[in-house]
Amino acid sequence: MRNNSLLSYNILLAMQSFKRAKSLYFLIILTLSIGVGVLCANLALVNSMASDPIPEKSANLLHISMNTWPDVQPPDEPMHILRYRDAMRIAESDIPLRSAVFYASGVYARDIESTSMKRFDSRVRATTPGFFELADAPFAFGTAFEKSRGMEVVIGHELNQKIFAGKNSVGKTLELDGELLTIVGVLKPWIVRPLFYHPTEGRAFDLTDDIFAPLETAIDLGWSIHARSSSTDNYAGVNETRDRNVYYLQAWVELDDIAKKSALQSYLDNYSQQLKDAGEHPLAINNKLHNVNEWLKEAKVVDQKVLAFTLASILFLSVCIFNASSLLLSRFHAAKFEVGLRRAIGASNKHMMMQGLTESVLLGVFTGVIAVILSWFFLKISVQFLPRLANIAVLEPKLLVLGMFLALITAIASALYPLYRANRYTISAELK
User: Fold this and answer.
1) In whole angstroms, what is the distance from residue 124 CA to residue 115 CA?
2) 8 Å CB contact between 246 and 231
């Protein structure tokens, strides 16, 4: 009971202190809030960049890079894009639990029943059926297509909102670049940060795709490649790529047991050796398997500019703490008569320290509230300079908690030296 009374008394004294020096404390709170807000905004970006997008099985999902280039000078080694026959060799293996082979494309989409001729520019993922379970794609309506060939598609939440106002569109027909395909599934809102299945070509922070189509159908229809591709052969369209040295497909596999990784590595190396023995490529065998986080690191997803600015933000926050400490020191110096008087009537150094810490904690609470608001504001400003990060500029709950914690720590840190100095004042000097 006595402790509660003392706490209430300390809070009352702190509020009275705030009222007597409103401008000074407002400046202290604003100084610390800006420092914490800037740091939290940058940490939000780094957190989204460096986060594990599919933590429940990221160690068991492997991206495959191979070096089957038929010339002595490959574009790079190994390549993260594969030929059709190389990719199909991976899909045929019974070592993985499931596999996904795909490429990025794009079409204009329109509801065939609509009276409007408006078409929506849509991102396409031409893929094998295993993609959906491998990537844990969430379905709102319907299911995935079951074969790599068929006039069926799965569409994303955003496209379903645009064309069908979010209703169950399973069974509806879309006109995609003049071809009619039936919707068999609609995804729920699906956010993947970063976009682990295609972080290359600067796509790590893109939204998930609008349309998912069977791989063989997309190739047959000649849907163009909207990502990196390399070739040693001439070809008129993607429908001619199956038996040519055209590299544009990406391959992922999911292992039910990570111990099978060595078996998969041997499988790929043996395949490459067969090609080499047949004189189909002169390169050294160098096939690589990267799990999700290794692949994101390999793709250099974390922007070095953002990292550098985050370090600068830490230094800026240190300056803010120093400035706030200087302001508090001037405040305690101005109130040294009050300090001396309270000590003269019996307040101990411990009581004075507790009073100062209570005041600091209150400052931290006020700072935290404003810092959270400023974090959101600074995050929006950052996106103006780095527009490609717009999709990952999100303040997650854990960062809001971190912001409040940082605000408390910085408020207490800025008050430690002034409190130490205040408790060094002699009673006689202050009452003289």
Assistant:
1) 24
2) yes
CB distance 335 to 24 below 8 Å: no
pTM metric for this prediction: 0.82
CB 153 within 8 A of CB 123: no
**12 domain-assigned:** yes
Per-residue pLDDT at 99 exceeds 90: yes
Helix crossing, 349-385 with 397-422: angle to 10°?
A: 140
Residues in the chain: 432
Domain that holds residue 229: 67-286
Amino acid at 186: V
pLDDT, one tens digit per residue, over 127-145 is 999 999 999 999 999 999 9
What's the total number of domains in the chain? 2
If asked whether residues 107 and 219 sit together in one domain, one would say yes
The two tokens of residue 89 are 């060799």
Q: Which residue has the higher pLDDT, 414 or 370?
A: 370
Pair 316, 382 in one domain: yes
Residues 124 and 47 in one domain: no
> Which residues in 273-308 are b (16+ Cβ under 10 Å) and which e?
eebbeeeebebebebbbbbbbebbeebebbbeebee
Residue 286 tokens read as 């160098």
Does residue 65 have a pLDDT over 80?
yes
Side-chain-facing half-sphere of 361: CA atoms under 13 Å: 9
Is there a single domain that holds both residue 262 and residue 384? no
Residues 98 and 31 in one domain: no
Query: Do 318 and 270 sit in the same domain of this protein?
Result: no
Residue 21's contacts (CB-CB under 8 Å, 6 or more residues apart) are 331, 334
Query: How far is residue 363's CA from residue 25's CA, in Å, rounded to a whole number?
Result: 8
DSSP state letter for 236: S
Phi–psi pair at 197, nearest 5 degrees: -80, -10
Provide, rounded to the nearest whole percent, the portion of the chain with pLDDT above 90. Answer: 63
Which runs of E-coded beta strand occur in 272-355? 288-291
pLDDT of 4 reads 59
Does 430 score more than 50 pLDDT?
no
